[in-house]
């Protein structure tokens, strides 16, 4: 096993170098052991993951990422692709899907909302950036923040209790869905590690981790 997996840290996260001759299922088992043994060294951290040493399919990439997260306190926030052509193809496909989603279901806002700024939408909205403390987003549909959420978000503003709020980092001042609101979080405490979603359950706002389903959503793009 010592020769099957080598882990190196880099500026953006970590690189996992995998032996090309080891069967993939065995490699997953070796990864699990390796990260369990080194969990205290890495601690709780969010990292970008680079895979090297052997070609892997997109399905295998997500299996590797999930094994790492299951056997450590690491949150894999993105996979760094060393194939430039594939990266450009993925970016093109992602942009096309975002535009399709925007025209069909809501709006997109690119940029960070700073203290005192507000953003309103008659439908759902995706914020590609941070919502800083003191900023506010209000939408009649869902609110998705592809960044840090530290301000106030109101989803389902017209009374739709099925609306949801999601963010890559969830540390809001306040969340509100329809007429249900959370308590004020003046200290900006993070509600969990990694991507989180908030929805109404039994009359209260419940915030849960979406790290597994988040990768499944990305995989479908």
Structural account:
With 221 residues, the protein is an alpha/beta fold. It is built from five helices and 15 strands.
Summarize it.
By secondary structure, this protein is an alpha/beta fold. The chain has helices spanning 24-37, 39-42, 58-70, 84-105, 211-219; strands spanning 5-9, 13-18, 45-52, 74-80, 106-110, 118-121, 124-128, 136-139, 143-149, 152-155, 165-170, 174-177, 180-181, 196-201, 204-209. Helix 1 (24-37) packs parallel to helix 3 and helix 3 runs antiparallel to helix 5 (211-219).
Keywords:
single chain, 221 residues, alpha/beta, six-stranded mixed sheet, 28% helix, disordered C terminus
SSE layout:
Elements: E1 5-9, E2 13-18, H1 24-37, H2 39-42, E3 45-52, H3 58-70, E4 74-80, H4 84-105, E5 106-110, E6 118-121, E7 124-128, E8 136-139, E9 143-149, E10 152-155, E11 165-170, E12 174-177, E13 180-181, E14 196-201, E15 204-209, H5 211-219
Parallel strand pairs: 2-3, 3-4, 5-7, 6-8, 7-9, 8-10, 9-11, 10-12
Antiparallel strand pairs: 1-2, 11-14, 12-13, 14-15
Helix pairs in contact: 1-3, 3-5
The helix-strand sequence is: EEHHEHEHEEEEEEEEEEEH
Q: Enumerate how many helices there are, as a single number.
A: 5
Number of strands: 15
Output the strand order for the largest sheet.
5-7-9-11-14-15
Radius of gyration: 19 Å
Low-confidence stretches: 212-221
- Distance N to C terminus: 34 Å
Strand content: 35-45%
* Mean pLDDT score: 81
Q: What's the helical proportion of residues?
A: 25-40%
Overall shape: it is elongated
Largest sheet: 6 strands, mixed
- Helix/sheet category: alpha/beta
